[in-house]
Request: fold
Amino acid sequence: MNPKTTEKIAFSILFFCTLLVVAPVIIIIITIFIKGMSAISFKFLFSMPENGMTAGGIFPAILGTLYLVLGALLFAVPLGVFSAIYLIEYSRDNPISRLVKLAIVNLAGVPSIVYGLFGLGIFVIFFGFGTSILSGSLTLGLMILPVIITASREALESVPQSFRLVSLSLGASKWQTIRHSVLPYALPGILTGTILGIGRAAGETAPILFTVAAFYLPKLPQSIFDQTMALPYHLYVISTQVPGIKENIRYGTALVLLLLVLLLNLFAIIARSRFRARKKW
Reply:
């Protein structure tokens, strides 16, 4: 067979497979936009729920989602980055370190409901934080931690070894080398892991179901030890447990969640692009 014909056939197969993956996602997004845009208004975004959550707005759920995502990132990003630095820069290559790395990769595939039950047992009951923003944030942070560690490890490994050797040969200490010659060039990859973590933390329902989410609250949370509403759980409740709610309210809530995740990811992508533009290699 002609090589060009073979190439065209292979290209067509790959394009068709890509289309099979992308098309359903595009259809879902378009459907959410079409059915949810009519519900979007200032009142819907910035007022409290009314009439058993069949009317009013979703502001407490939006605010609660932001609290949980930011809390998870504050916990997971520093711990994940420092863990990756230790595994790549300080730990020796031995069976124990390889076992730890394998365990981290496996933890990334653990179902979210397991993290929810773990958070319930550890943070809610054992440490006595109760069903609170703190418990929910820590649970979500644990859930995205393996993703951030894995992405940070790969980012650190991608920095050429010559950068470290030159810095050390000039008299810099090990930490100075990591701080000034490795981390700045690994930041784009670290931010990639953060982006993946944001998407998962903002959209999960199971972990917050046991640790923080409330069906309805008449006021906004006042501290990290208060419960809060959250968009994923709110969407689940109004879709399955609130009879007679309008369809556009459900799709509008899904649209807000989708846009919120995209907005948070956009900030991280812009930051990653700026750091990546500074690379000179």
